[in-house]
Design a protein that fits this description.
416 residues; globular
């Protein structure tokens, strides 16, 4: 898949970066600052991702939402470009890019469909976890099929009784000979019932975070079942279900990492996951800003375009400022995560907190600027609002992000 990705890049380079560079130079930096500060290679990533979003995602996002269609074939087309395991290592079948590269790609794809891209980002998190913490056998078995999206992945931490307090989870895994037997349930699992590989956090030791292990559970494992598909406000093109384990038996070799280290694995996965979801919010906000500018420029009231009113101009300025500040916060956190900065968990939390809150407000403001039209499902802006709202909840709520940030501040002060 790294080879396929390089071939796609070469095809772009045969055209040259001139089109994107000239576009970036001619478009207001406030209106669309996604290309600012990127290398030529990253500009190519941006162009490739936006072209895919424009051709494959944007024309279908409303239909997928209305019919609750999980677009597996389209996801596999994205995988052909190297988007199935973006920051997993090349030697194991991944694309081998950086977290910042992934952020650029997820943002661009989300302009076409937020919910589809958000699932793709979760799938990428699963691929990275196996690539990073798996045995050589596990990497050989799972990473390449996840990269091609022949296999689809789901991340299973949240339970009906443990959401933000995730270390209190009650799902148990008991070792019996050369197997583990899992019992419990997971809630709000993206892709559940339609995906193939489940990374399930279960208790193997004492209470608290140090008694949790991570397991790779295939869909056909005996004792694994799924609840009804949840009816949701947004993210309708990816199924969400409860995952239930009733004496679910898997080989002991399916443990990811060492026993009782699963919570740390889950949290490291979430650091990157928070960058990914924040990047999806950036794409939603960029598309919403674009829609708001277009609408207010052509919609006439009181004898002139809405955009001729200073109140509208100031609102657009606020939206653009928030978007560009959010983008820089997310990309900065992504770079620090790649560099393994000791404060990267707090930086990822700050990026997610600021970007998901700010970008949701941008989407909501864009809807308001559309007036009654924004409330109609004929207009995409309402879907950006609905799909972006959950980003303030999953991968850690905005309130949990504040807990992580404040603990980092106060913990460092206490240690002086």
């Amino acid at each position: 898949f790294a080879l396929a990705f390089l071939m796609a890049l070469c095809a772009l380079r045969s055209l040259g970066p001139r089109r994107l560079l000239s576009t970036a130079a001619s478009v207001s930096a406030a209106y669309d600052g996604a290309a600012i500060g990127l290398s030529e290679t990253q500009l190519n990533f941006l162009q490739m991702s936006r072209e895919f979003a424009e051709k494959e995602l944007a024309p279908n996002m409303q239909e997928w939402d209305a019919k609750e269609t999980f677009p597996v074939d389209t996801l596999r087309k994205a995988a052909e470009l190297g988007f199935g395991a973006i920051y997993a290592r090349e030697e194991h079948g991944g694309t081998g890019l950086s977290r910042e590269d992934a952020s650029i790609i997820f943002e661009a794809l989300s302009e076409g469909c937020v919910a589809t891209t958000a699932y793709l980002s979760i799938h990428n998190m699963c691929a990275w976890m196996i690539d990073t913490f798996g045995t050589e056998e596990q990497r050989k078995k799972f990473v390449a099929p996840l990269a091609s999206m022949e296999l689809l992945g789901s991340y299973c931490l949240t339970e009906p009784g443990s959401g933000s307090d995730s270390s209190s989870l009650r799902t148990r895994a008991e070792k019996k000979g050369d197997t583990y037997v899992l019992n419990g349930s997971k809630a709000f699992i993206s892709g559940a019932g339609s995906t193939d590989v489940y990374l399930i956090m279960a208790r193997t030791g004492a209470a608290g975070p140090k008694g949790i292990s991570c397991f790779i559970v295939p869909r056909d494992a005996p004792g694994l079942s799924f609840g009804k598909k949840e009816s949701k406000l947004g993210w309708n093109c990816q199924p969400t279900r409860i995952v239930t384990m009733e004496d679910c038996t898997i080989p002991a070799s399916n443990m990811l990492g060492n026993e009782n280290t699963g919570f740390g694995i889950a949290m490291q996965g979430l650091n990157g996951g928070r960058i990914n979801i924040a990047s999806c919010s950036l794409g939603a906000a960029q598309a919403s800003l674009r829609a708001a500018v277009e609408h207010t420029s052509v919609r006439n009231q009181f004898g002139k375009p809405l955009a001729a009113n200073q109140a509208i101009q100031f609102k657009l300025a606020e939206m653009a400022s928030g978007l560009n500040a959010s983008r820089q916060s997310v990309r900065f956190a992504a770079r620090q995560l790649d560099l393994k900065h000791p404060g990267s968990a707090a930086l990822c939390a700050m990026g997610k907190l600021f970007a998901t809150d700010t970008c949701f407000n941008i989407c909501n403001d864009a809807l308001q600027l559309h007036g009654g039209y924004g409330y109609l499902k004929d207009y995409k802006v309402q879907q950006y609002v609905r799909d972006a709202r959950v980003h303030q909840i999953l991968e850690g709520t905005s309130e949990v992000m504040k807990m992580i940030i404040s603990r980092d501040i106060l913990g460092k002060l206490a240690g002086r």
